[in-house]
Amino acid sequence: MMTQDVAAERTRTEPPASVSRKRVVIVGNPNVGKSVLFNRLTGVYVTVSNYPGTTVEVSRGRMKAGDYDCDIVDTPGMYSMLPLTEEERVARHILLEQRPDVVLHVIDAKMLDRMLPLTLQLVEAGLPVVLVVNMMDEARRLGVKLDSQALEQALGVTVVPLVATTGEGVKQLRQAIATSNSGPPRGLRVPSGSIAWPLQAAESTLAATLSHDYPLAKPAVADLLLQGDAETIETVKNKEPRQAWQSIETLLSDCRNQTTEPPEYHLAVRRRKHVEALLDGAAETETKVRKSFGTWLSKVMMQPLTGIPILLVVLYVGLYKFVGEFGSGTAVDFLEGTVFEGYINPFMIRLVDGIVPWEPIRELLAGEYGVLTLGLRYAIAIILPIVTFFFLVFSIIEDSGYLPRLAMLIDRSFKKLGLSGRAVIPLVLGFGCDTMATMVTRTLPTIRERLISTLLLALAVPCSAQLGVILALVAGKPAVFGIWAAVVTAVFFAVGFLAARLLPGTPPVFYMEIPPLRMPRPVNVLVKTYTRLGWYLKEVIPLFLLASLLIWVGQVTGLFDLALRALSVPVGMIGLPSEAAEIFLFGFFRRDYGAAGLYDLNKEGLLTNAQLAVSCVALTLFLPCIAQFLINVKERGAKTGIAVSAFVLVFSFVVAWLLNGLLQATGVLS
Amino acid sequence: MKLSEQSEELLESLYVARVEQGTDPDMSLLKDMRAIDELVASGCVDKGNRAELTRKGIEEGKMCVRRHRLAERLLVDVLNVGPETVHAEGCRFEHVLHSGIEDKICVLLGHPRTCPHGRSIPPGTCCERSENHIDSIVRPLSGMRAGDEGVVAYLHTHDADILRKIMGMNVLPGSRIRLDQRAPTFVFSMGHSQFAVDTAIAENIFVRMG
User: Which chain B positions have a beta carbon within 8 Å of A510's beta carbon?
Assistant: First the structure.
């Protein structure tokens, strides 16, 4: 998993490259075509991995530029040198740690005025920038005119106009990479007088006070200090002598007190004026607005009246039809029924019986709960296909740009749960794998939002494996499905609503860029699905095998029977047959494992409809799987993680008990 | 009651010192005996040599400050006066803003909460009634209608966290902005970019219409 230390990344940073090698880093806003350009430059030799210690994906590859072999890194989107999100922090970290020979700043030619402020910051920081103006074709169609030579003059860096999707200009870009020297750019004059005076003075005093070397030029370090960037403040504090730091600290607090708007505001306004001046001679950006199918569809998706029906269609087709019916129905039936029960399990049993003379070891490997016959079968035949189909659907939805539209649509309702629309991304991902989704809650801006979404994920968001099995169980029983869905939805909103009332802290703020809708590119979708699946398998297979092993130990020692007998009391209280106790015990090792057990139980015809509804609800709400329990503790700390899990355990039984009582009393489903 | 310009200036300074900053006023202010006598006569300042404000004086002072800061806002946002001259001009301008004119300007400007220097503008009765922004020239994004366009005039900058988020979207004074949609969240476009924001952010972006 992604627990590697950040230090590992540092040691991987090699000394400055020899003559024939160059290190290239791609940076830029989200949605400017960085990864398309990356794929075009690198070809096939690409590795996608999560940045150490984070959930942020970083692609690395190799490319040729003239006589040079280049290592090239594609960073996550960043808006400015002052990071607000985890993605931006990772991107900046790579820029600082890799000491690149070339920094390709990719911008969208249609939004020059919005993107050039970052170019200014990169140039000010003394980084070896090559400015890549992408999407020239779209910009030309809209009437944008760009004089790249004038822009080159004004910025002091090479400017390459290009179209990453068609390859136009890529040859020139390779040449620019080959000929660029790794030194800082030819200097850039910032227009003076456009900034409040105490800041102007502070800027130069700060730059002069800094005595150490930093990966960024000193004026850029000074600006980051003025903007109150915590990481830079920490670095400077550690590097500079005590006395120098004290004078820096006084200067910074004076600055904050002397102007009414914070320094970052003045610096942003200055950069904006600078960009206006730059573009004045170099580009014509007055453009016409184009009406296309994409903009129409986007509008329809964001209006509640049309957007909610679209959402329901996406859920029905994507989740229910494709993941539920096809993934957990057709694909599972084939793998489980035909492949495993028909060929692999009989083969394993014969093999093990032939080689192993001792009965307990036979049981361990190929018995009723055997590592091979049960653990491997659950992991490969039941869980794997469902998760694969889910990640495929999620990657398509993600790449199309639908998620931000969903987030804005749902923001107002989520505010009642103490969450912002942004939380929709981890929560939807939770329908794939709650463990992974809990890690992704890290991208939410406040601790309060992270805690509420962790709780909701643990309690009321069934993962794709559970969902798949539950949908298969209730297939053809709409009443059971309805009751299950209603109870779980009610619990989701009730618990969120209460959490928002009870937890201290301020309500969240929502803002999000809405990128244009795009046709997902099959290659990108497959790479993403593959990466996520690889992570999931690495995580899940050992746990399934471990679970089988523990159950075997429990059986051999008699502990398993004891635990089952203990569990059969609460299980009996919620009106289920004692066989169901096994499911809850399995459920602790992996929640989806428990769901798969329920599937077996139902196949044997041991459950009435009412019992089926109660057990589906209990299992959906029940204690998180062991992996999620561990991630809760890791992400939220031991106290909170254990508290969340304990709450979920008790709460799920209480809800199941109430539901059982209600069903018995009213006679619904009987 | 109509105070002279000098008395209004003095009352304003006393209010800023005593109420906003909680300090004693600069003693040099108190040399203008005519103005002090006028304030004492009108019941705004206690007799005695410490020049304490009476309850009435606090109310009147608050309104003086309000007129001054509204005048500055008007000069900067609508008449495009540079920040160097705005304070002096504001001082002259404020004295004509009586008999309800200040409330009309407040409505026109979309009930601004701070002056161009970032100090807060005491709310008037029009703000409490929250008279709507239909005819105002400068409106918060949250007060615009879908389809309205304009140029960002200023950002309400008191919450540094919200300000950072607004700047993160590159929304700055001078940005041309169009409101596309109001519900369920505010959706606006700038050039070819589009953003969704909630009320907490939309009410801090002030746009000069047109």
Answer: 185, 196-198, 200-201
Instruction: Chain A: give the shortest CA distance to residue B13, in Å.
Output: 19
Sign of the dihedral through C-alpha B80, B81, B87, B93: negative
Residue of B nearest to A109 (CA): B192
| Average of per-residue pLDDT values in chain A | 83
Interface A:B, Cβ pairs < 8 A: 113
| Residue A48 pLDDT level (bands cut at 50, 70, 90) | low
Nearest to B101 by CA among B68, B67, B125, B132: B67
Q: What is the rounded CA–CA span in Å between residue B203 and residue B185?
A: 12
With an 8 Å Cβ cutoff, is B147 touching chain A? no
H/E stretch holding B193 reads: strand B193-197
Does B206 contact A at CB distance below 8 Å?
Answer: no
> For residue range B145-177, what is the model confidence (pLDDT) as tens digits?
999 999 998 888 677 788 888 988 889 988 899
For residues A257 and A561, give the distance between their C-alpha atoms in angstroms, rounded to a whole number: 69
Q: Average pLDDT for residues A142-158, to the nearest whole number?
A: 87
- Long-range CB pairs of A353-361 (<8 Å, 24+ gap) are A360/A556
pLDDT in tens, A108-136: 998 888 899 999 999 888 889 999 999 99
Paired sense of beta strands B149-155 and B138-140, if any: unpaired
Kindly report the average pLDDT of chain B as a whole number.
83
CA distance B179 to A623: 45
Give the integer Cα–Cα distance in Å for B11 and B65: 9
Residue-wise burial string across A224-249, b where 16 or more C-beta atoms lie within 10 A, e elsewhere:
bbbbbbeebbebbeeebeeebbeebe
Q: Using the beta-carbon criterion (under 8 Å), do B198 and A510 form an inter-chain contact?
A: yes
